[in-house]
């Protein structure tokens, strides 16, 4: 299982997010249509890998990778977006262990920044958080 699939499974099953009705999407938000309030898509989390640094040793791959992910939370109100962002933080900040059943071994997950935005055309709020996620990768033979 790749880290993106493990993240999707883990976040989709995280009780604090699922209780809020938050949906999790890779890369892009589905089409909202004419009215974000009536679309049924929100609240939503969109995640994407921003960068990856594989940790090397003198012998080659260490089997460890540091991936920076951006998580964008979208909501119809500022309060809703902030509440989902907080549950996302609780799900990821300080996480270590196996992410998702049969998933990826995580050494550490650390928040690396956050910001807020508003889209006046779509009338939706956005809360971004970046996380550095140190995880195991398959070593070449």
Task: Give a verbal description of the structure.
- The structure is a single chain.
- The protein is an alpha+beta fold.
- Helix content is 21%, strand content 47%.
- The protein has 3 helices and 6 strands.
- The protein has helices spanning 3-13, 15-18, 78-92, and strands spanning 23-26, 44-57, 60-75, 97-99, 104-119, 124-136.
- A 6-stranded mixed sheet has the order 1-2-3-6-5-4.
- Strand 2 and strand 3 form a beta hairpin.
- The model has no long low-confidence stretch (mean pLDDT 91).
Strand order of the largest sheet: 1-2-3-6-5-4
Apparent shape: elongated
- Share of helix, binned: 10-25%
Largest sheet: 6 strands, mixed
Number of helices: 3
Structural class: alpha+beta
Distance between the termini: 18 Å
Rg computed from alpha carbons, rounded to a whole number of angstroms = 16 Å
Number of strands: 6
Q: Report the β-strand fraction as a percent range.
A: over 45%
Mean pLDDT: 91
Topology as H/E string? HHEEEHEEE
Pick out the low-confidence regions: none
